[in-house]
Amino acid sequence: MSAWIGLAFDERTWIIPVPIICARLDQRSRNGLRMADTETLLTILSQCGWLVERRLQPEDLLPCELLIRYPRLPTELERFLAGLQLCRNSDDTVWFLTRENFHPTTQNAFRWNESELMSLEALDGDDDEMNLVRAYWDCHFPFLFAVHSDYDYLAVDLSPETFGRIVHGYM
């Protein structure tokens, strides 16, 4: 059974199928949530067995080197992620990227840009294709990973014409 959730950035709501989040959602969440309604979203995730820890004081989400690559993120998404210490399912196979993923202090199994790095590794030596992969990720900011089957990700599109659109991909 697939769950549906609505994510809204910059006045637009995008309803996306997210079977990777959870199957037990109430009717309100099936009709869509706004990211600004983070308490409801986090409550629903907790009810679905997710481990949710909020930061006591939100801090800057991205380090300086990533701010150069991603100078403009949807405000609600950045605020949401910056306010989380941890947000993952009980199996630790689906998680939102938090400040700790973007400011690693230890060697994490999955880096914040793992999808990009895996693609580049697979294309080793094909400079044209590698440039296309880099260009794609320059315009797409990953914010959720899932590793329960394929390597799935959710990212927000940062291109001017489709800014805020949520994209789902897998490896």
Task: Write structural notes for this entry.
Strand 7 (152-157) and strand 8 (166-170) form a beta hairpin. The chain is globular. 31% of the residues lie in helices and 25% in strands. The chain has helices at residues 27-30, 38-47, 64-69, 75-82, 99-102, 114-122, 127-138, and strands spanning 4-9, 12-17, 51-54, 84-88, 94-96, 140-146, 152-157, 166-170. A four-stranded antiparallel beta sheet has the order 5-6-7-8. It has 171 residues and is of the alpha+beta class. Residues 1-36 have low confidence and may be disordered.
Give the helix/strand layout:
Layout: E1 4-9, E2 12-17, H1 27-30, H2 38-47, E3 51-54, H3 64-69, H4 75-82, E4 84-88, E5 94-96, H5 99-102, H6 114-122, H7 127-138, E6 140-146, E7 152-157, E8 166-170
Antiparallel strand pairs: 1-2, 3-4, 5-6, 6-7, 7-8
Low-pLDDT regions: 1-36
Strand order across the largest sheet: 5-6-7-8
What composes the largest sheet? Answer: 4 strands, antiparallel
Counting H and I runs of at least 4 residues, what is the number of helices?
7
Query: What value does the average pLDDT take?
Result: 80
| Number of E-type strands | 8
Proportion of helical residues? 25-40%
Structural class by helix and strand composition: alpha+beta
Give, in order, the helices and strands: EEHHEHHEEHHHEEE
| Dominant shape | globular
The radius of gyration over CA amounts to 16 Å
Through-space gap between termini: 22 Å
% residues in beta strands: 15-25%
